[in-house]
Amino acid sequence: MAQQQTSRRRPGTPGAFSRWMQRTMNARMNRKVRRGRGQMMGMDVLILNTVGSRSGQPRETPVAWFADDADGGRLIVASGGGSRHPDWYVNLMAHPDRATIELPGRPPLPVAPHRLDGADRERAWERIAAAQPRIAKYQSKSDREYPVIRLSPR
Known about the structure:
By secondary structure, the protein is of the alpha+beta class. Helix content is 32%, strand content 26%.
């Protein structure tokens, strides 16, 4: 009688482990930001607080940011691994009036998100790419243009 082989895969839906791992890593980074250490891979990090586009539940995502000369705001890039918009971007655009950010050691700050287009995006992208050439390299390998969002204090 042949032995039945057992699977070494984790139970659950496909991708459940990677989603769990992403949530765990995000929670770890959020704790670091709240303790005043907001750096990841040489980039400044903030916590972007959004509301789920379908669930309406609060979401917290660590996101790299870049200084914006225009109004003291911050620039963020929705790279999402190159192939699609990240969930935080979809949530942010669905409920822009409910967005806040947390900077290391500071309370949440309400922000107004604005997706940059045309010359505004190009100027912002040049600053971002100069500060972090790795992001420009990722963009060059993607078929879609990464959205650049300005977060202005409300």
